[in-house]
Design a protein that fits this description.
Layout (H helix, E strand, L loop, with lengths): L1 H59 L3 H15 L5 H16 L1
């Protein structure tokens, strides 16, 4: 009886070890996938905001600084969870795409 309990305990410990190892492998992959999805969502939103600023610049009499302020305001209201540097990079990227 005691031997059986020891064997079952050994199997349970082995299963837990395998699950822990699997978690260590899978967790970073899931985190990276989530970050990529968040980045793509942020990029899509910023592209739309920059396009909107370009389209309304005449009606609101916006210059380059005004358009960027408009985009920054939209980005803040949208709740994007990116750094200021990432936001600037996305805005610059969207502007360059529109200039082509």
């Amino acid at each position: 009886m005691t031997q059986t309990i020891i064997e079952i305990s050994g199997v349970i410990v082995a299963i837990l070890a395998v699950l822990a190892a699997a978690y260590k492998l899978v967790a970073p992959l899931l985190a990276a996938k989530t970050k990529n999805q968040e980045w793509q969502t942020a990029s899509d939103k910023i592209n739309g905001f920059v396009l909107a600023a370009e389209q309304i610049q005449g009606a609101l009499k916006l210059d380059g600084v005004g358009k960027k302020a408009y985009v920054l305001d939209l980005a803040e209201k949208s709740g994007l969870k990116i750094t200021a540097d990432e936001l600037d990079a996305l805005i610059e990227s969207a502007v360059k795409v529109l200039d082509f």
